[in-house]
Amino acid sequence: MIDFLISIVSLTIPAGTALLYGTLGEVYAERSGVLNLGVEGMMIMGAVTGFAVTTATGNALLGILAAAIIGVLMSLVHAFASVTLRVNQVVSGLALTMLGLGISGMMGKRFIGLPLAGRLTPLDIPVLSDLPILGPMFFRFNILVYFSILLVPLLWFILYKTHWGITLRSVGENPAAADAMGINVSLVRYLAVMFGGMLAGLGGAYLSVAYAPAWIEGMTAGAGWIVIALTIFSLWDPRRALLGAYLFGGVRVLQFFLQPLGISPNLLNMLPFLLTIVVLWMISEQAFRRRIGVPAALMQPYSREER
Amino acid sequence: MKSFRLRMERRLEAPRAAQVRALAVSLFLALIVIGLLFALLGVNPFYAYQRILVGGFGSLYGLSETIAKAIPLALAGAGLSLAFRARVYNIGAEGQLLIGAIFGGVVALNFPEWPRLALMPTMFLAGFLGGALWASIPALLKARFRVDEVLTTLMMVYIASDVVRYLVYGPLRGPEERGFPYSSRFSATAQLPHIDITRIHYPTLILAILAAILLYLLLERTKLGYEIRVAGENPAAARYAGMDTQKIIVIVLLISGGLAGMAGVGEVAGIHARLSPPEGISPGYGFTAIIVAWLARLNPLATLLTAFLIGGLLVGGDAIQVALNLPAATIQVFNGVILLFVIAGDIFTRYRIRLEKQA
């Protein structure tokens, strides 16, 4: 039983890590009032770039850095379209996803089936990794897993306890008021979307450089859409993003254990999306929205002239 | 140092000619950017474009395939243009298409001996109901609880995919399929007739043309259409005028979902002749239909033309896969860049853009 628990936990955390990166980034983007449906596209570009640069340099950290940069570049397209040009955010995000899937497919063709030289290996934390039970559960992951976990309290703290966080949230809740207070609404939105792109790129690189580690066309396989769902499920809170990412990562792991028992993996797969619809329904209640601080200006372009 | 600032002034209704010009310029720029991307990725863009053109439009076979692919795009796209006109962003046509395919398929599998004249309309009706049913959940949530339809319709796509997968791996799997995730083959009367040796299943084509005409008339000639347009262009005005915006939301979602569902029936009964996992039923027609609607500037009649163009692009995409040994995802580069440029091009018709010097 203990062994079973150990294997579930030690498989769930890596399975949820890409989702965690993506969700943390999208939480920040949406907190600024910009919905970016391009997460899937940015993640897959991060995955292919991470793989390509790691292969070329033999250095996984360079690959991860390149993936973060490509994520930012991709997100700039969305930021320019939705913040500067104020086009429909939904369509622009969808276009970004299509673009990412297309370019990554073309870029990655030559990497299909190649082993990755210089993959990110687990980093056993001294002493802690030797602990019985807890060691194999929590302290034998690669550095990207640890980093994602460290990001959670950090991003939570910034969002709720610092001036930056207040600025970000005010832009997402009432851009006109933020503008009146002298906040540069466009700049904040650009930075938030770019931060989201960076983390989506990291999440993608995690998949191809550490988790798989390989390049498979379309390897994100809808993780970007689960991120969109998780962002809502987490009610735009980094702590709940962690909970949600591991919950849904765990669902994927559990499939392998439940399938022999005759439980359909397809029905389990629906769960994140079903739960998200339920959450969307719950937060339609006005009082509840205000209590948890839903970004009220989500999907609304802001222009001083057209308030 | 002087700095510049983009200033955008909203224009009243842009003239039709300006709209068409903006669209042409957007498409042209998109093709240049795609060409540059191709060159960067080591593909000769001139050769690629030539193959696409020849593949999609250069032969009778290519044209027939283009029309076959345009059918689901036109059906779903016409419905989406109606919904988008009301500013109801149904981006879940893919899911509605899949559920429509299942509904039509279940009818086909259960009444294989019915004569075609009874079976075909029943299948399409079932498909419409299935798609509308799938859209009714976001419709209800939006109309009743003001839940944003973008996210709910999108989530419903992935739920639909899993439902389809569950069904074809389980209850709907054909007993003679030896473990493969397919339903039994449809009976001859459940399969749609084609034009000659092509894959153009003309009953669905006729439905697509009818849908485009009817939706155009609905939008431009009826009171409901007028209300849909006002609700989209000026929601506040619609409310002050006492229009029932909840009713509009429900109607446009049910119609767009239903038409996507019929497109699904066309695919399984006209092309595949059985049910299969979601990737086998549709290579993302429901999402591509968004581009079709947007390219048509949300005019249902114009979706017939844009569906034909995008259909040709899909066929040409298949051609360059073979000719240049490119992955199937290549066509998504076209989809993404074209969509970005078309929505950006809209800006130039809705706004006058000035570059202002600032001291």
Detailed description of the structure:
The complex is a heterodimer of chains A (307) and B (359). Helices cover 71% and strands 0% of the residues of chain A. Chain A contains 13 helices and no strands. Chain B has 14 helices and 2 strands. In chain B, helix 2 packs across helix 3 (60-85), helix 7 packs across helix 13 (300-324) and helix 12 (285-295) crosses helix 13. The model of chain B has no long low-confidence stretch (mean pLDDT 92). Chains A and B meet through helix 3, helix 4, helix 10 and helix 12 of A and strand 1, helix 5, helix 6, helix 12 and helix 14 of B.
Short description:
The complex is a heterodimer of chains A (307) and B (359). Chain A has helices at residues 2-31, 39-57, 60-84, 89-108, 134-138, 143-161, 163-173, 175-180, 185-211, 223-233, 238-258, 265-282, 286-292. Chain A has 307 residues and is mainly alpha-helical.
**Proportion of β residues of chain B?**
under 5%
Helix share, percent of chain B: over 70%
Largest interface comes to: A-B, 52 and 51 residues
Mean pLDDT of chain A: 90
How many DSSP helices of chain A? Answer: 13
Series of secondary-structure elements of chain A, N-terminal to C-terminal: HHHHHHHHHHHHH
Q: Keywords, please?
A:
heterodimer; A: 307 residues; mainly alpha; ABC transporter involved in vitamin B12 uptake, BtuC; 0% strand; globular; B: 359 residues
Topology:
The complex is a heterodimer of chains A (307) and B (359).
Chain A: H1 2-31, H2 39-57, H3 60-84, H4 89-108, H5 134-138, H6 143-161, H7 163-173, H8 175-180, H9 185-211, H10 223-233, H11 238-258, H12 265-282, H13 286-292
Chain B: E1 3-10, H1 16-40, H2 45-57, H3 60-85, H4 93-110, H5 116-145, H6 149-169, H7 202-221, H8 223-233, H9 235-240, H10 245-272, H11 278-281, H12 285-295, H13 300-324, H14 330-350, E2 351-358
Antiparallel strand pairs in B: 1-2
Helix pairs in contact in B: 1-14, 2-3, 2-13, 3-7, 3-8, 3-10, 3-12, 3-13, 4-5, 4-6, 4-10, 4-12, 5-6, 5-10, 7-8, 7-10, 7-13, 12-13, 12-14
